[in-house]
Design a protein that fits this description.
By secondary structure, the chain is mainly beta. It is 14% helix and 48% strand. The longest helix is centred in the N-terminal third of the chain and has 8 residues, at 3-10.
Length: 157
């Protein structure tokens, strides 16, 4: 299948929007991910992909712990900042603090999980990361941010 055909097919598939963060020697890093998946419940495992050309790739792959943040529908701007190449993602107005295991935690998100990385798997132009949550914090009832056909949107109940 051609790459463009593959991309067109997946533009029709809605995906939840998350931000993955990690601590690095040069400071915190993070990126917007639409590949987050619940992989297993016993033991709890999550997976996500990080592009090998992404500025955060080396830090995420070297990290022992990462944080996965689930976004609310009104956090499109935050998702855009963390998706933009070259942006200072942790500068104001981004509100964050250092959390368990030294990972950067974003404030006011729907939920966050700090995960111990258990596996990195090269997968095409990405690395598939599998993590085991060791800490979680939930916010109020979620109105999740989703990505469909190149745009952000929401899901109503």
């Amino acid at each position: 299948m051609a790459e463009e055909t593959f991309r067109r097919v997946f533009r029709k598939h809605p995906a939840g929007v998350a931000i993955v963060t990690a601590a690095g020697e040069g400071g915190p890093v993070g990126f917007t991910a639409t590949s987050l998946a619940s992989l297993s419940s016993a033991p709890p495992l999550v997976s996500f992909g990080v592009g090998r050309r992404a500025s955060s790739w080396a830090t995420v792959c070297a990290a022992e712990f990462v944080a996965v943040h689930l976004l609310e529908t009104d956090q499109q701007q935050l998702a855009t900042v963390f998706a933009r190449s070259g942006a200072d993602r942790f500068a104001p107005p981004t509100s964050w603090r250092t959390g368990p295991h030294g990972v950067p935690l974003l404030d006011d998100v729907s939920a966050v999980m700090v995960c111990r990385k258990v596996y990195d798997l090269p997968a095409g132009d990405h690395t598939l990361v599998i993590g085991q949550p060791v800490y979680a914090r939930e916010g109020a009832a979620a109105r999740p941010l989703v990505y469909l056909d190149g745009r952000y949107g929401s899901v109503s109940r």
